[in-house]
């Protein structure tokens, strides 16, 4: 009877309403148990619940009592009904608790949609799963034990998705819930376990996992790799780098070298990847594990082959002319240098080649060859910049721009051609002028001492020491992140013997760069002792270099020493140097650095220490995209009263979101309109850092209004940010690039422009054309992981706000945009790589047109009436002489009128324009390939050489020779400084048209 009544009630017009009559029977003894079961079963229907839940809610206690009654057969159904009503009430936690009590009746597969209420059950199930997962994740992260029923639910979620083959979802969920066992289960159940395993490694390395969990997962993945027949050694080595297991990497290399053939090539490829991804300390450990094979490294110089032309001495801080030579003469010519490498008496063994690659000599040599061969610097830009210089700041900016433009090209033509102008540099400008040689000759390590010999400290040091200090800084820039014991010892000796602040300043910076990441305790102690001299200029450089040497070490003793001295010293420069050093110390630390960060952020009385905490957040979480860190930084922007803290907090957002440019645009979109100029400046640079080389249109649109900001420093930040975003882009990839270049030129040359803005515009032109237009700016390596040197270099360069010399450190973030193919002998064979894009899409920007001299307008001379009358009389007398006009001279080839010739020329030009550009083009080895172009690369059909990894990865790639018995054609090498900067055909000054003339025969 009860069932009949309920069914009739459901059929009422307008749907079921007011179930009180049935629900009151749940507590009544007059209703049998079976009748209560029927009521619960029939009410568990979304068509009923959605129209009556607010009335059923009054009887929730009665329904829950039925669940608690262990003798009631439909107790789990009662729990499910109560859960659904609680869900309608908005009590999600209570609904989840009751859903878990329903056991198997709570189905993860939703019921079919109803005609009346639609997919209401699907929404309910998804919400319960969401709340359940959030609860489970929280418990796992805190190390708390979860409800067994919740664990059973999570287990069911995993199993259902494995059965559905949603394995990537399972792995992602397992990482979030810290279930390493489920990652293993998902990979084992895959039909392509090798591919999924490599993909999982990539995912783990890029994720925001804490160090403990990451290491646990990587250990498990390594065990799975070791059980495979053909393991992915590249992925394995990436795991081992993060786990800091150099001995295991050395074993893999030994194993591959023993197999020969492709195994040997793979060992070389791994060695190149190790140099790009691992720290100096890690690589040194691998070298020790590999042992000595009887051959000395360094048989092959880590520069372009052949000799190098020494840089001319400095006269008053500038390169001076050599005696008996013209300004344009060079000490040596390319003809004097061998065009190909000198053959070695004893060929290198595979292990020697591995050691050579790990030392970085091969990578540096190949990158130098690429940069020298492809140098396309437009010298006219530098000439126009030089001609507009009227202040010391602009002079300094021009030299820095030249250093950036010729980064790694070894071409110092601009310095040689403008010796007198460079001689105007004084004091710290002289320091920077010499230091820029370190950018130009970056990587030219074997001859670095010879190149800088004219400037390095002698027995009798200049009384001021700016030139000598700049030379030591340049030496560090040449060897940045790749210092050898000889150079480090030389810099330590110079620091020990230095008597004046500029020399100590340069020696500290050079030593920090050369010993970067080595964590050498002796070097650290010497720098610390220099810091304790309490000299402002020296102390700033010493503090920064302490951080560089101990980069990413997370050493608590170092942290405490630096913080203590920051509180004791009275010098602002030293405090700022310590701020930079502390941030570098925490680089890549993430959660490991949290205790330090919290300690510094809570210092109310010292703004510099709060800035240090903010900067540590930037570098510790660089590239992680951690939303909690971004929120913490935004809170500092809103709450901290100090403008420097605000500015650094906004800049830090750019570092944290450096892998997620769109997120950075979203977070900073409101900050670029902030009333505080420091916040707007920081927002511009944050966008520049996060969106570097992306040509992100939203970011450009946000920054462009800042070019007309009232604050000069905001305009400066805006131009530098735009240069970072637009580097290596063309009009095909970024339509506003031509207009932007004109804006930079205008801001750099206008007389009324502020000196700070002009400095930014000039340096920005250097950034845009860096490395002969062959390098990009990136804070990640090719695999997408944060690059220690790039992150640190960009961060230190941001200190230019206080000290222009730090701008040069941006070069550490420069990455050659190249694809270089190598054979088994580490030589570059002549090959062509196919690019499935038009050549113009990623071409070099055209050279700028030289300014034409504007002809002055002729002003009509006022003619007096009496003069006019005299002219008429003279005209009447000479009239008979002009009756017959002289015949025009006939000129050979002048058969057609000029108008007709012009028309014909236009027709040819138009025809040329109409010819369609080929949709593909070929790139020669070594080739310039910008980041956006990588995805278009493919192996040419019928190619002799096949890459060991896809060309789309970029960088140095080993090639497998399909015809090893055939003779190889090898790319000819060029000597350092052998190819001058490209001036372009249109950059040369045009020959002026000859002046019109007339032969007057009556004069003869």
From TrEMBL:
Residues 47-295 form the 26S proteasome non-ATPase regulatory subunit 1/RPN2 N-terminal domain. Keywords: Proteasome, Repeat. Residues 289-348, 875-926, 977-1004 are annotated as: Disordered. Residues 297-315 have a biased composition (Polar residues). One of its GO terms (molecular function) is enzyme regulator activity. One of its GO terms (cellular component) is proteasome regulatory particle, base subcomplex. Residues 875-918 have a biased composition (Basic and acidic residues). SUPFAM superfamilies: ARM repeat. PANTHER family: 26S PROTEASOME NON-ATPASE REGULATORY SUBUNIT, 26S PROTEASOME NON-ATPASE REGULATORY SUBUNIT 1. This is 26S proteasome non-ATPase regulatory subunit 1. It comes from Mesorhabditis spiculigera. The lineage of its organism: Eukaryota, Metazoa, Ecdysozoa, Nematoda, Chromadorea.
